[in-house]
Amino acid sequence: MIRVVDLHKAFRGQQVLKGVNLELETGKITTIIGGSGCGKTVLLKHLNALLLPDRGSVLVDGMDITRIGAGALNDVRQKFGVLFQGAALLDSMTIFDNVAFPLREKTKLSESEIQQRAEERLDQVGLAGMGYKYPAEVSGGMKKRAGLARALVMEPEIVLFDEPTTGLDPLLGKSIHELIRKVHAAFGFTGVIVSHDIPEVFHISDRVAMLANGVITEAAVTPEFVESKNPIVRQFLRAETEGPLAVI
Q1: Are strands 80-83 and 55-60 parallel, antiparallel or unpaired?
Q2: N or C: which end of the chain has fewer CB within 10 A?
Q3: Neighbour count for residue 90 (Cβ, 10 Å)
Q4: What would the pLDDT profile of 43-86 be if each residue is shown by its tens digit?
Q5: Looking at residue 169, what is its pLDDT?
Q6: Rounded Cα distance, 198 and 88, in Å
Q7: Residues 134-156: pLDDT tens digits?
Q8: CA dist., res. 159 & res. 146, Å (int)
Q9: The pLDDT value given to residue 240
Q10: What is the C-alpha to C-alpha distance for residues 9 and 90, in angstroms, rounded to an integer?
Q11: Close Cβ partners of 224 (under 8 Å, ≥ 6 residues apart)
Q12: If we measure between CA atoms, which residue out of 247, 242, 223 comes closest to residue 37?
């Protein structure tokens, strides 16, 4: 569904992505791992053109989204849902209104249809009956769940997850992983996760790719990735400070 070809991106002269090549399979969950500051979130933001590359292409269903007009790009973005790292809920709105917001902004559904769909999504993420609360009144885990409900409410083909368990304790983190797998089974979307939560995130990943030194150093189905002989992958998975991967 998504193909990244020779992607380059620099900020103020600092090269972050140095020729990334990656294929993300339709209907599968791919997790991108790598050290802090290596460019994982930068790469994620290129997938729906929140950032544009200095060089290279991002193809979604065969269309290079780095070279299309604003109208066509907006149509492509309708395929995407995003769960941001901090959930990015609007504090002035209730949980229900946060979930309903994309439907009110981007569709012509009636209010009764919007209410039904938003409540269905809240129920699917375990927040039935909690829509009246405001973000400040719920836990970090509940915010993540609400963010996921909002990401799914437009029934996207692709869902991007930016560090979905950041700031959560191990039990809450596991519950979010289980929820991602559950909703993936229900909706069948193509999922892309950026995560440091290793090895736990591997349990919900069909494929894993590692970003290091500005390129994808390894990408494989999860069992093969875990058994990789690549010295950079082995060093990272074993959390060893000595090896080819620089520790900053």
Answers
A1: unpaired
A2: C
A3: 12
A4: 999 999 899 999 999 999 999 999 998 888 888 888 999 998 87
A5: 86
A6: 24
A7: 999 998 889 999 999 999 999 99
A8: 14
A9: 85
A10: 30
A11: none
A12: 247
By the 10 Å C-beta count (0-12 exposed, 13-18 middle, 19+ buried), 170 is classed as exposed
Distance, in Å, from the CA atom of 207 to the CA atom of 90, rounded to the nearest integer, reads 33
CA 6/CA 1 separation, integer angstroms: 17
CA 70 to chain centre: 23
Residue 44 corresponds to which tokens in the numbers above? 């994620």
Predicted TM-score (pTM) of the model is: 0.91
| DSSP β-bridge partners for residue 242 | none
Count CB neighbours of 68 within 10 A. 15
Q: Which runs of consecutive H residues, i.e. helices, occur in 80-218?
A: 95-106, 111-124, 140-152, 170-187
Instruction: Please provide the size of the chain in residues.
Output: 248
Q: CA geometry: angle at 239 spanning 216 and 32, to 5°?
A: 30
Cα separation, 70 vs 90, whole angstroms: 25
Write out the two tokens for 172: 């809450």
**Residue 13 one-letter amino acid:** G
pLDDT given for residue 248 in this prediction: 61
